[in-house]
Amino acid sequence: MAHNGDQLTRVAFGLSEATEADRAGALRLLEADSELHAEWIQGLAMNHAAPDDVLRRVFTVDPLPEARHWLPYYRLPPQAARAAAAHPDPRVRAMLAENRSLPSAVLAVLVEDPEPRVRRIAAMTACEFGVELPAELTVRLATGQEARMRYWAAGLRGLPERTRLVLAEDPHPRVRAAAIDSWSWPRLRPEVRAAAEADPDPQVREAVARATHVEAPLPTTVEGFLAEPDERRRFDAASTAPVETALAELLAVHEDRSLRLGAARNPHVPTALALGLAADPEPFVRLTVSLRPDVTEAQRAAIDYTLRPGREPVPPWVEERFGDPDALREIAASSHVLLRRGVTCAPELPADVVERLAADEDYFVRLMLCENDHAPHELLVEMFADWDGLSWGSLAYRRNFARPGLARFADDPNHRLRYAALFDPEAEPELVDRLSYDDEDMVRRHAAADPRLPLPRLVELLGGDGLPRSAAGNPALPARLMHRLLDVAGVVRNQGLSSGAGRVRPDQGAGSVRALPGPSVPREP
User: Fold this and answer.
1) Is the confidence at residue 495, as pLDDT, over 90?
2) How does DSSP assign 427-486, residue by residue?
């Protein structure tokens, strides 16, 4: 008997009436489809409801399908990360060690992996992303035999201060250099500092120079400014130093536009001088003047400024007022669009300010408000429907997006709004089932991963003509059916897992096939 692709899994796993011969034939077809197995394995690896015994089986698969495309990047469920850390292939463990989202307990296991490359990558990840490891572990790394690990240990959060200071006397110069900085230098014993200053290795001496460097005050007078040879310090002085009036006057008419820009930005430059730059030939100088806190709304409105494409940083003085509701109200009412955009970044916004910004005439004010936890539901849906930015999909995960009533979009011509219908917490299984047949791939995939999807349809989507990866990642997939998928894919069962036989029914998980012998996989302590 022939079966359609979407019926094959229903027959194989007992959700359709069929003879035993038909069922056996369907299973043989599934067992021969290695591409389908790879999709199941990737979906199960990302399934947040997959039990530990399923994940231990998944992460014995070698080679792990397309691991380089997802293992270093995806936020794995904690139990999946633990299982992946026990994978037999050190290349897989090395890819896992690159994942910045790993729980610290898993990264701690990888830092002591038997494979040197895995250890080094895990230590580098912990350093780069500030993951705090147990103090006793950092001490072991800092006092171990491997110089590279001692080098990375010098930068680990959780390393006791005493141990870090000891590393400044390490036999390896790279480790000594890593342990010397402005924090450790004054805490080192005098003889250690003297040895570091006379160290034969240049990288240690360079570390000492950085640790002991004291930045000279920026020039504030005309004489000091003209005598300053460093272009960077000249610009910093123009932008931030408490310059004297004579220097401010020089900067405001300087032929170098970067110095005029600095004067326009510098809060110590008198307002009257800064306003003289409101007619500067450089558009960005004029824009900078228009953003000063000491300029009135009338003066701002009179400046002919031009907005540059792209996002501008929030003016520091606006950020300083984030905790002041009255100041936020005043800035939100400004005629200057960049100030209104800046207000949207305040962590806490009064309700009336949110309402005003949500109705702002500027598209990007409304869009930036969507990044705020207080963004109203209606605005999020509006922007979700038509914004063409790369991260438009992230709007669906903002705090106020998922709300009852989104199901009304299930038949909308805009596929994004049909997708949004699946975020309705009260959407019925029938609606999810209907959207799993949608013409748009992204809608079908989201429906396939929705736990409200009826089991018969979920099992259909596990087939090669469905969405097997999304379906295998569905948290409503019964655990026994997860094991059955792995059995069909030829993944050995770990010792100690139960064996049995049976068929999956709409109200019951899949029956297990006979357990295959295989070594148990060690778990993280």
Assistant:
1) no
2) --HHHHHHHTT-SSHHHHHHHHT-TTS-HHHHHHHTSTTS-HHHHHT-TTS-HHHHHHHH
